[in-house]
Amino acid sequence: MRVLTGFAGLMALVYASAAGAAEPAAPTKPDLQRGQQIATTVCAACHGANGMSPVPTQPHLAAQHQEYIAAQLARFKSGARQNPIMQGMAAGLSPEDMRSVGAYFEMQKPVHSAARDKARALAGQKIWRAGDKQLGVPACAGCHGAGGHGIPAQYPRLAGQYPEMLMGWLKAYATGTRASDVMQPIAARLSENDMKAVVEYISGLQ
Predict the structure, then answer these.
(1) pLDDT for 174-201, tens place per residue?
(2) 187 and 174 Cβ atoms separated by less than 8 Å
(3) Which SS3 state, helix, strand or coil, does residue 137 take?
(4) Smallest Cα–Cα separation from 199: which of 148, 156, 164?
(5) For residues 24, 30, 31 and 34, what is the CA-based torsion angle, rounded to 10 degrees?
(6) Relative to the CA of 88, which of 134, 136, 139, 161 has its CA 20 to 30 Å away?
(7) 20 contacts: CB under 8 Å, gap ≥ 6
(8) Up-side HSE of residue 35: CA atoms within 13 Å toward CB?
(9) Which CATH number belongs to the domain containing residue 185 in this structure?
(10) Is residue 179 part of a domain?
(11) Rounded Cα distance, 189 and 175, in Å
């Protein structure tokens, strides 16, 4: 209970921060044609024109939540999330562009893949579904869903992502290279073998 309460405390901070923000103006409807244009000319080299990344170190964006994509693009543009390549790509995008490209990618068919190491994936499944109380690690499914489909705006869809890319994310959280009040303390408690097991399991989710 102490572990769950601590994690719930982290979540409460996130929700309280969101609740205290000023109510934004109603966004305009996404322009899917504009979103496709951006996806095929700006994003395709790393993420694929249909959102299926040809590069193992870059995330698939197909079926990713529109709100999450738009929010991350805004963070790259502002510098809140550091990445020289993505900052350059997002620099010329308006908030409307970000919502439009997010909506386009969300409509694409999700990636279907399979775990390559069944034994390792089974170990990862335990952490994904139940966490590890001894380490103080909550279940990944609590935020990303049993099937890895995430929660729009807040938590990304992870199902079918490349294990290489996911491993990079977890290590960045663990070292603080990528900031997150929720993910940093969780990733920091995982061993490298734990991380490998979790990402192997995620890569096989549909």
Answers:
(1) 999 999 999 999 999 999 999 999 999 9
(2) yes
(3) strand
(4) 164
(5) 80
(6) 161
(7) none
(8) 24
(9) 1.10.760.10
(10) yes
(11) 11
